[in-house]
Amino acid sequence: MLFRSHKQVLLSVVIATALSGAVIVDAAAQSRSAERANRGGRQAAKPEVLFPEATRVEPETKASSRLQGKLNKLFAAYNKDDFEQTRTLADELLATETANAYEKAVSAQLAAQAAYNSDDNAAAKAYLQQAVQFNGLDNNGHLQSLLMLAQLQLQDEEYEAGLANLDKFFTESQSKRAEDLIIKGQALYQTERYVEAIPVLQQAIAASTEPKDQWNQLLMAAYSSNDQVAEAVAVARQIAERNPDDKRAQINLASMYMQADQMDQAAAVMEKLRVAGQLTEEREYRQLYSIYANTENAENKVIEVINEGLGKGVLKDDHQVYLALAQSYYFTDRIPQAIEAWQKAAPLSPNGETYLNLARVLHGEGRIPEAREAARQALAKGGLRKPEDAQKIINLK
């Protein structure tokens, strides 16, 4: 009747990855800048090549002179954050039969940005698909449009399509950028492909000079979900050591220790937080007293933590709290206190088992009338595994 088991604490790690907005280059303005620079004997600065190892061959098609005016209006509307007008002008260019692949692709790309900035993700995805299909942008614009499309699809839980576009992006870009790899690692994690996610996440972290702690938390969660508990503990420890004042990092470390059945280490981490007054939430007190409840000879600590949590009003008066308290008092031979805790736990129990345990303890203490009443309550509440035990106590003389 007295518990000594624990459930593994599963971490829910939500990693927020910023959407990579495509780089918009005003080709007409760039051309005019180059012309002015050439007249002055200087070379215009070229935009940074974001994917130097890309396998995609860049198209040679550029803006035509006959649609230059419409393109200029489109860029002007976008640069003024006039997203409604941007989409209107882009739609006109997309419907123009004489527009070439570049003009249509850049129009779709700008319209996608405008739709995204207007919280119209469905339209943004549709425009991005057009931008990619027209295949008229340089590698910077084309590959970032493909990446943004994949991210939006993943965000909308279109995992198959999103992962397919991610694979296409990495095939064409050969990107080794940490911020790109982490997107793939997260997508693989979210689709429970942990074996594939782990090396991608490792690669992303290794590729960054300052990897974010969220990335390491995601790797930790992937290890944990793949039953690589030792590796998960190692990552959790690294995060906690780097962030000694971060309560969440410390609690995650304690959770990992619990999964590894290293209860002493888990208790040490949580106890340090308690002593520092950093345990402020009910689940934190529950985690700590559960750790002590699954640690040998730590009943006094269970009692101390629960009473402190109840005294602060952090812990709620519920069945599990009073049951753990009753059991801890019982194991430390403080029977009156155990009975009092069981009396509080029993009415809150979903069935009559706690009343029956109370009846057994009262019987053992020779408090027969009280034992019989508790047994009657047990039968009335129902759900007993052995109702005959309750009846035996009721029949006591």
Biggest sheet architecture: none
What does the radius of gyration come to? Answer: 32 Å
Secondary-structure element order, N to C: HHHHHHHHHHHHHHHHHHHH
Mean pLDDT: 88
- Helix count from the secondary structure assignment: 20
> What is the count of β-strands?
0
* % residues in beta strands: under 5%
Low-confidence stretches: 1-44
Head-to-tail CA distance between termini: 25 Å
Decide which structural class fits the backbone.
mainly alpha
| Backbone shape | elongated
- Helix coverage percent: 55-70%
Task: Provide a short characterization of the protein structure.
The protein has 397 residues and is mainly α.
Verbal overview:
- This protein is mainly α and 397 residues long.
- 66% of the residues lie in helices and 0% in strands.
- α3 (83-94) runs antiparallel to α4 (101-117) and α18 packs antiparallel against α19 (368-381).
- It is elongated and about 105 Å long.
- Mean pLDDT is 88; it is low at 1-44.
Keywords:
66% helix; 397 residues; single chain; mainly alpha; 20 helices; disordered N terminus
Explain the layout of strands and helices.
Layout (H helix, E strand, L loop, with lengths): L26 H13 L28 H12 L3 H12 L6 H17 L3 H14 L4 H17 L3 H15 L4 H13 L3 H14 L5 H13 L3 H14 L4 H13 L3 H13 L6 H12 L5 H14 L6 H13 L3 H11 L7 H12 L3 H14 L5 H8 L3
Helix pairs in contact: 2-3, 2-4, 3-4, 4-5, 5-6, 6-7, 8-9, 9-10, 10-11, 11-12, 12-13, 13-14, 14-15, 15-16, 16-17, 17-18, 18-19, 19-20
